[in-house]
């Protein structure tokens, strides 16, 4: 028998929540990989950083609030969550998120960390 090693998987969230299904698709993908105990990390950049902000009310635009599901990360062993500091700064956001254990990285370190993953999905 050969010893198969799981690939490391990065999921990039680059779109604002509720403007398209991309954010929910990224979340669903993360939970699927997490349920199979894959080494997975989420990266938030560009408008994707808006997915991390508190006090959103998607019901006002007739959308379901998939952002609440981020709290399930601990049950799926999803512990690596990275945010681009420049994306936060460009949008006037501060580093208070509804996801625990979020690491804010400067652009160079963000790119370097992302480059360490074998498989990358971008949403």
UniProtKB/TrEMBL annotation:
Source domain of life: Bacteria
Signal peptide from the UniProt entry: none
InterPro entries: DsrEFH-like (IPR027396), Sulphur_relay_DsrE/F-like (IPR003787), Sulphur_relay_TusC/DsrF (IPR017462)
Alphabetical list of Pfam families matching this protein: DsrE (PF02635)
Annotated SUPFAM superfamilies: DsrEFH-like (SSF75169)
Family statement drawn from the similarity comment of this UniProt entry: Belongs to the DsrF/TusC family.
PANTHER family xrefs: PROTEIN TUSC
Protein name, UniProt field: Sulfurtransferase complex subunit TusC
Organism encoding this protein: Thalassomonas actiniarum
Gene (name only): tusC
